[in-house]
Amino acid sequence: MQPILSAAHMADVDRLTTEQFGIPGLLLMENAAVGAVLAIEQQFGPIQRRRVRIFCGKGNNGGDGAAVARQLWMRGARVEVLLFGKRETARGDARVNFDIVARLAEASSRLRMVEVQNEAEFTSVLESSKSRFNLHIDALFGTGLTRGLEGLFVKVVEYINSTRAYIPVCALDLPSGLAADSPHPVGVHVIADLTVTFTAPKIANILPPAGHVNGKLQVVDIGSPPHLARATERHRATYYRITELGVRDYLIRTCRMPDAHKGHLGHVLLLAGSRGKTGAAALSGEAVLRAGAGLLTIAISASAQALLVSQCLPEAMTLPLPDDGQGQLTEDGLQAAFAAANQHTVCAVGPGLGTEPTTRRLVQRIVQEGQVPTVLDADALNCLSPWQSGRGTAERPIILTPHPGEMARLLGVPVNDILVDRLGAARRLATAYHLFVVLKGYYSLVATPEGDVYINPTGNAGMATGGSGDVLTGILAGLLAQTPHLPLEATLAAVYLHGHAGDLAQEALGERALVASDILRFFPQSLKHHTQVS
């Protein structure tokens, strides 16, 4: 999985790369420039003879921009560098690259540097320009920015954005105006078509709403040792992006042996469905089996069993739970369900379950006294809100899969508090009760009992449809049943594959027409893709 770094951690990586490994900052800046130009050509096509304007601040991000200018010039582009500030006040590696560009500009008509001190000078540059540019590159501010832009820089950013309809924008490291450690813009900011970030992504590269303005994100390795991105003496990565490579590795490592039989592959008890909501149980149940679990038993109130059986899931067994004829479990039904919960490899609870009093008591007892790995979703979460029910353990992991509304009820806070700080909310619940928390939504999050948070890049708005979460519950339970000793890996794979299947469905059907059963229909294709050895 790919670390996502804070600004402080990133600065530590750069410093230690030089101090411990002797790789000078100028070389890192050069590597960044070469990688950025390759990404630019991959996104926008060959750069030769194109006209590029680069907006540079005086710091290291501007120094990266100056290095990019030279690389573009070497490839035959016509490049104009606007340096906002005086060159002689720049320092370190950035100053070196500004000086190089200034000297080259004296000798070449294809390279120009202009120092801009105020709004009047900026306006003059724009008015006097006779060139029609093909690309704008934003190198104003990098990971060091923590507050909103002011004065001249607001005007510059507004100009870049105003021309974006006909001049595409590439941002270096992150779009200027974003704070690296926040998913929320701190003021006026560049809207990029491509962002080339270095070594590892930052929160503002990934999470919305800031992540929306990055355009396509390309991560460039500039030569820092990979272990520094995971941890330095002062910093440890606690945010990660789920990657295709990581999911593929888990699936291939845990593939079926040639002599496998159904008893080797786990038996899931799915406690789901009720009168009027049997579809949720059917969707979730099929997902359990499609994910590869060997056996599935769906426990459901006796009065709803016949309807569930009629919904064409012949591979599943059913366990009718005694009820009062109206769908509410009796005490005998409660006892039967609890006994069954501890007799299977994994217990998944919630889709379409209902929240009647005996159901609430059953769910609470399963959480407090259960003995097998447990997945909780939908009505199970509503039965447990606010969360006071118990703790997971290493031997018996508990995995919650709330959407923001369910998360708000679990924590007893307004839903807006969750939307403002999704990372903090997921981490707070996970660490307080030793849980795995899957906070669903655009860029779903997986928080661990230790406080790490994994961000999922797959999925789309078409998956915002009833039953999508039921499918995820089934996929998760099915993978967990096969690898109960790997709860984190199973959870990460389930979230990623669920989103990827949704992406395949969206590509084939569009977003508006997509329904949950389409995610399920494309899931085998996603699973096959990620289990093939390349």
From TrEMBL:
Pfam families linked: Carb_kinase, YjeF_N
Every YjeF N-terminal domain range: 10-230
Catalytic activity: (6R)-NADHX = (6S)-NADHX; (6S)-NADHX + ADP = AMP + phosphate + NADH + H(+); (6S)-NADPHX + ADP = AMP + phosphate + NADPH + H(+); (6R)-NADPHX = (6S)-NADPHX
EC nos: 4.2.1.136, 5.1.99.6
Domain YjeF C-terminal positions: 245-530
Highest rank taxon of the organism: Bacteria
Amino acids binding (6S)-NADPHX: 60-64, 142-148, 173, 280, 352, 403, 470
Keyword set, alphabetical order: ATP-binding, Isomerase, Lyase, Metal-binding, Multifunctional enzyme, NAD, NADP, Nucleotide-binding, Potassium
Cofactor note: Binds 1 potassium ion per subunit.
Binding site residues for K(+): 61, 138, 176
Binding site for AMP: 440-444, 469
NCBIfam families: yjeF_cterm, yjeF_nterm
Family of this protein: Belongs to the NnrD/CARKD family. In the C-terminal section; belongs to the NnrD/CARKD family.
Protein name stated in the entry: Bifunctional NAD(P)H-hydrate repair enzyme
Primary gene name: nnrE
